Every structure is written in structure tokens, then in C-alpha cells.
Amino acid sequence: MTLLYREGRFPAGVSVMYKKILFITGLLAVFLLYPSDAYAMHIMEGFLPPLWCLLWGGITLPFLVAGMLAIKKTVKRHPEMKMLLGLVGAFAFVLSALKIPSVTGSCSHPTGVGLGAVLFGPATMSVLGFIVLIFQALLLAHGGISTLGANTFSMAVVGPLAAYLIYRLCVKLGTPLWLGVFLAAALGDLLTYVTTSFQLALAFPAEAGGFTASLVKFMGIFAVTQLPLAISEGLLTVVIFNLLTVHNKQELEELSVISRRDLTSKGAGA
Predict the structure, then answer these.
(1) What's the predicted TM-score (pTM) here?
(2) Does an H or E element contain 100, and which?
(3) Which of 75, 98, 162, 215 could form a disulfide with 201 if both were Cys (CB 3.0 to 4.6 A apart)?
(4) Are 8 and 74 in contact, with CB atoms under 8 Å apart?
(5) What gap in Å lies between CA 198 and CA 184, rounded to an integer?
(6) pLDDT tens-digit profile of 201-222?
């Protein structure tokens, strides 16, 4: 890799800062590949009844098909975007692998899907998020194979879709770019955990109070740690987005994420 770097054989348009981001992300991923038991925001293996596993898998499948078509279209139009796709996938893997202990004895974590949703749209992130969740289930004991459909729907479907819509709404309203990216990443994170709570409440309604009581209980499990995590993820996503607007402005313009007018009138930085 060092030889390729010195000889300048990376794809055209990939900046030095871009390479540094990839390198740092890769190092973090290596340190996080040590497997450990996890009871985290992902629903763990064997926790959901088989019927719900099949149901969420069936609901998620069309989004994965749409995502594969979207990735194929993007790569065909912009072959130089392959490394940027790899970057957002690695970003999601590293952030969602950071398990933070909760006061309830469980864990919470960022999702990292907001950046990719802003850059490539929610369909693309459904596939990248699905791949991230497979690696986490196999290498980090984080989540599970039987619950892959449910976890993919919450983190790789609802989260990116919410992040993308929030960012586009902010752009339409003329807010600063940094604020749109922050809200997209933070609220996308929060809605992922709300969706997981919704899934668990449907599968395990409380004896007293039914679905509503169960939903409140499951949401309370993660609320204490998830709120500051969502804010932190939003801020970190803004930092990475700002680096990309400086060093990869052409790629973002080609993806219609930003325009020259956006950078001059609104500014990307906080």
C-alpha cells in the first residue's frame, strides 16, 4: 500500500486527506475486530421469535434489491466513486462497532449511516449497512444472523432514509450545510434506536399495558446513552463532511450533494 501511495497509483481525484481518512478508519477497524459478547442496540442472535425474523427479513429484501441497483448505477456513471463508497462503508462499520455501556446493563452505539445516506442516498446505504451488520455478527458477536433482517431494517433502512430526507429538507429550507449534515446524522441515529425499540415492543408486548408499555420500556433502555451518542455522531459526521467538501469537492458536486453556490452562500463548516 505504501508503494502504491508513493507511486501515485491511487484512482484520479483521490486526495491526500481522503487517503488519510481511509488509513485512520482502517486502523480503527483492525483494533475493533477482536470478538466479544455484546448485548447492544442490535438485536442479538436468537432473541426474536422466528416469525418476526422472517417478517423483517421479507420487509428488508426489496430495499436491498433497490440498493444493489443504485450502487450499480452509481459505479457505472462514476467509477471513481468506488473508494468513496468504501470510505462510507468503513465509517459505518467503525462507528457502529463502538459499544458504549449503558446504565441499564446493556449497550448503545453510533450507527455511522448518516454520512453515506447524505452522499449516496438511502438505497445505497441499505446494502452497505447490511454488509456491515454481517461482518459485525460474524466477527464481533454484535447482532446476529437470524436477526439480520430486523437489524438491517432499523440501521440500514430507516436510519439512512431518515438522514437523507432530513438533509434534503434542510437544503431545501436553505440552512447551512453543516447544520443539515448534523441533523441528518444525529436524528438518523435516534430513529434507528426508536425503530429497534418498536420491533422489540411488537415481538414482546408487556402483560400490563401491551405494546405501548413495552415500547416505553425498550426506548428507556437506550435513551440515557443514545442521546449524547447521537449528538457526538452528528458532530463527527460534520467534521468528515467538511474534509470531503475541501478535498473532494468535485466528487460531491458530481453526486449533487453540494453545489458551488452552497459552498459560497451557506458554507460547510460550523
Answers:
(1) 0.80
(2) strand 100-101
(3) 215
(4) no
(5) 21
(6) 999 998 888 899 988 888 887 6
